[in-house]
Amino acid sequence: MKTNKLISRMAAVLSLLVFTTNSFAQEQEWKEYYKAANGKSGAALKTAFAGIIYDRDEGGSSKTAYNALWTHFRTTDALPNGKVWDMYSNKREMTFGTDQAGNYKVEGDVYNREHSMPKSWFGGEVMPMYADLFHMYPTDGYVNNKRSNHPFGETNGESYKSANNFSKLGKCTYPGYTGTVFEPNDLYKGDFARTYFYMVTCYEEKLPDWYTKNGVNGSGETKNAVLATLDGNTYPGLSSWQLEMLMKWAKNDPVSEKEINRNNAVYGIQKNRNPFIDYPGLEQYIWGDKKNVAFSYDHYESTGIQTIEADNAVEAWYTPDGRRLQKPQRGLNILRMKNGKSKKVLKH
C-alpha cells in the first residue's frame, strides 16, 4: 500500500514537472514574440504591438476562413463540459454542430458567429478582420440579432433584456454618449474590453479609413456606432468615453483562465496573440497612468491580475521549474488545485 502511494505521488510530481516545464517554455516563447515592443511607451508602444500582432495566418480566402470558424470554436470556445461557451446569453448550453446557425425564434435556439466589433464598421467581408478569431465568438443567435451593430455601453436595458437579465440593450447611461448600446454581463466585460484593445491596436492603420468611410460617410446605426466608438485616429483610436468605460471594464474584470486558454488556442490557429491578455493591465501602459513608463517584455509589472481561487481549493503552489512553495511568490507561479488541475498564475 505504501509503495503504491509513493509511486502515485512520484507520478503526480513528474506530471507536474512536465506541465511546469512546458508552461515555462511557452511563457518564454511569447515573451520573445513581444521583444520588438521593449522600451516603448504610449502611442509608440501601441504601434510596436500593431507591428507584431498584425502578422498572422489568415486561413485562406474570406469564405474559407469564415467557414472554418465553426470548427475553430470547438477549440477556442468550449465550456469545461464541451458545450458552447456563449458570452451573450445563459439561457441554455448549446451543442457544437447540432445547434449551429439555422433559424431562431427565441433565445436559446441556436448559436452563430458574432463579430464583437460589427463587420459593418470595417466595410463587411473584408479580410483579415472578417474572420479574426480574436473578436469572433459563438453567441446566441437571437441575442446577437438584438445587439445588431450597436456599440458596447452601459444601459438600464429598457429596449431588451436577455434571460436572467444577462445582457441588455437600451439608451446609454455612461457619460459621453446617449445612443442605443448593448451591455454584456459583468462576467465578460473585461473580455470584450481586451478584445477592443486588440482590435484598435492590431488594425490601427485602418482606423482612420473605417471612421471616414463607415462613420462620417456612413448611414444609420453603423454611422452612429462607428462615430461613438472610434475617434478617427490611430491613437488613441477609441473615443474618449468608450476608452474610459473599457478601461474600467478591464480593471473590474481582470484576465481570467478562460481568456488565457483562448489566447493560446487562437495562437495555435492564427499564429498571433492578444498582448492585453498576456500582459494584464497593458492598457495602462498605452492609454492610462503608465503611458510614460517604458514597457519591458521580460520584466513586466502588471496592474491587473487573474483571480486566484479560494485557499480551500488550493493543493499547493510551485515555481515554474517544479519547486514547491509555502506561498505564491512574485512572478509566474504554478497553482495545483485539489481537483487535480493545474494553472499558471501571475502574482504581483
How does this model look, in words?
It is built from eleven helices and nine strands. It is an alpha+beta fold and 348 residues long. It has a four-stranded antiparallel sheet with strand order 7-6-8-9, with helices on one face. Strands 3-4-5 form a three-stranded antiparallel sheet, with no helix packed on it. A two-stranded antiparallel ribbon has the order 1-2. Helix 5 (189-202) packs across helix 8 (240-252).
**Cα-atom Rg, whole angstroms?**
21 Å
Shape: globular
Secondary structure tally: strands: 9
Mean pLDDT: 87
| Poorly predicted parts | 5-24, 303-311
Characterize the biggest β-sheet.
Answer: 4 strands, antiparallel
What structural category characterises the helix and strand content?
alpha+beta
Give the strand order of the largest sheet, numbering strands 1, 2, ... along the chain. Answer: 7-6-8-9
Helical amount among residues, as a percent range?
Answer: 25-40%
Give the terminus-to-terminus CA distance: 42 Å
How many helical stretches?
11
Measured by DSSP, the beta-strand proportion falls in 5-15%
